[in-house]
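Homework help board

Subject: predicted structure for assignment chain

Our instructor gave us this sequence and asked us to write out the predicted structure in token form, then describe one feature. I got the tokens but I'm not sure how to describe them. Can anyone check?
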Amino acid sequence: MRILTVDEAARQLGLSPRSLLDKRFRTRTGLPAVKLGRRRIGFDERDIERLIERGRERLPGDERR
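My token output:
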């Protein structure tokens, strides 16, 4: 398991770090944060990959699920 910083996760998702810090955004997308001390959070790289996969466009005849 690799924990990404807010900046790394935001870069992978094409979002601003501020969006990832917004608890409403994380609740809406189901993206859990990992607490890293008292004031920092990070994100499990696998959770970021799952979020990307869920958002991937499905085309007719696409066998992936």
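Reply (TA_rk): Your tokens look well-formed. For the description, you could write something like this. The chain has a mean pLDDT of 90. That's the kind of observation they're looking for.
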